Amino acid sequence: MANTLVNKLIHPPTAALKESAEDKDTLISTVRRFYGLNGGNDT
What does pTM read for this prediction? Predict the structure, then answer.
């Protein structure tokens, strides 16, 4: 049940990111910033 709830909360912003991204690099960069994933850099 928790998985379903999380999916319902995460789907709209994820879908919007995919639709608005001009290219794959922009999408990856935005998702990394959104989730705090900086590829091992601590800055």
Answer: 0.44
